[in-house]
Automatic annotation (TrEMBL):
Residues 70-258 form the IclR-ED domain. It comes from Halopenitus salinus. The lineage of its organism: Archaea, Methanobacteriati, Methanobacteriota, Stenosarchaea group, Halobacteria. This is IclR family transcriptional regulator. GO terms for molecular function: DNA binding. Gene3D superfamilies: 3.30.450.40, Winged helix-like DNA-binding domain superfamily/Winged helix DNA-binding domain. Transmembrane segments: none annotated.
Length: 262
C-alpha cells in the first residue's frame, strides 16, 4: 500500500517508482538485478526500464542502468519553487560566509532529514562527507542539530510515530537512543530556542540548529551550522553561533510568512 494515497494506486506506476528508488540506492544495476530486487520477470523489468529511458529518467551504459539526467531538471524545479528554500536561501549563504563553516537547510520527509540546501564556508570541513551522505538514505532526525530542532516543534505523538517507524540509529557514543531521553532533550531545545548536536551524527563534528516555524505554528523546516569540534567549543556555540542561527531562522520565518501571504 502506498504511503500517502489512502490505498489507491496504479500498479505500473508503483512498479516504476520502486525501480527508481532501487536505482537510487544501488547507483547502477543490470536488468537481472532490477528484476530480482523488484520481483519482476526480466522481460517486464526491461519494459519498465525502456519506458523510463524514453522519458530521460533512466540511462544505460555498458549493460547497466542508472538514474537519468531528467531528475536534475526536476530536482532544480522542485527546489527553486519550494517556499522554504526561497525564504531561507540567502540566510544559509550568509551563515556560511560569516561563520566560515557549513550551513544547512532541511525539512522533514517521511520521518527523516531531507537537505534542501547546503553552503560551505571558507573554513568548512567534511564537504565530501556531506556529499556522500546526500547520496545515501535520508538521515535520521534524532542525531542532527537541525533534525532535533525540527522534532522539538512537533507534537509528542508525531515524534513518537517517527521514532517508531524510523528507529533511533546509534551513530556515535553521543547519539541519543532512548525515547524518554530524546523527549527531555527536545524540552531543553524548546526552552533555549536552539539545538546542539555534540558529535552525535559524526565523531568530531558539532552543530547548532534552529527551527523555522510558520505563523500558524507548523514547523516548516530547520537550519544549522556545523563544523569541527576543535572550533565549535561551548563558548562559540552558545554565543556567536546560536545567535546567528536563531536570527537566521527568524528572518527565514518572516520571509516564509511573506511568501505565503500571511
Amino acid at each position: 500500500m502506498s504511503r500517502e494515497s489512502g490505498g489507491r494506486k496504479i500498479q505500473s506506476v508503483d512498479v516504476s517508482c520502486t525501480i527508481i528508488e532501487y536505482l537510487r540506492r544501488a547507483n547502477e544495476a543490470t536488468v537481472s538485478e532490477v528484476a530480482e530486487a523488484v520481483d519482476l520477470s526480466p522481460g517486464s523489468a526491461h519494459t519498465h526500464l525502456a519506458t523510463l529511458m524514453d522519458h530521460g529518467y533512466v540511462r544505460k551504459a555498458d549493460g547497466t542502468y542508472r538514474l537519468g539526467p531528467e531528475f536534475l531538471t526536476l530536482g532544480e524545479h522542485v527546489r527553486n519553487n519550494d517556499v522554504l528554500y526561497r525564504a531561507a536561501k540567502e540566510e544559509i549563504e550568509d551563515l556560511a560566509e560569516t561563520t566560515g563553516e557549513s550551513a544547512h537547510l532541511i525539512m522533514e520527509h517521511r520521518g527523516r532529514v531531507l537537505v534542501l540546501y547546503e553552503v560551505f564556508g571558507d573554513d568548512a570541513v567534511g564537504e565530501r562527507y556531506h556529499a556522500r551522505k546526500r547520496e545515501e538514505s535520508l538521515r535520521h532526525l534524532h542525531c542532527t542539530a537541525s533534525g532535533k530542532a525540527l522534532l522539538a516543534e512537533l507534537p509528542r505523538d508525531r515524534v513518537e510515530a517517527i521514532v517508531d517507524e524510523q528507529g533511533m540509529e546509534h551513530r556515535t557514543e553521543n547519539t541519543i537512543t532512548d525515547l524518554e531521553e530524546l523527549h527531555e532533550e527536545l524540552g531543553r531545545i524548546r526552552d533555549r530556542g536552539f539545538a546542539i548536536a555534540d558529535e552525535e551524527q559524526m565523531v568530531g563534528i558539532r552543530a547548532v540548529g534552529a527551527p523555522i516555524v510558520c505563523s500558524d505554528g507548523r514547523v516548516a523546516g530547520a537550519l544549522s551550522v556545523s563544523g569541527p569540534a576543535s572550533r565549535m567549543d561551548d563558548g562559540r556555540i552558545h554565543g556567536e553561533l546560536a545567535e546567528r542561527v536563531v536570527r537566521a531562522a527568524n528572518v527565514a520565518e518572516v520571509n516564509l510568512n511573506t511568501e505565503r501571504g500571511v
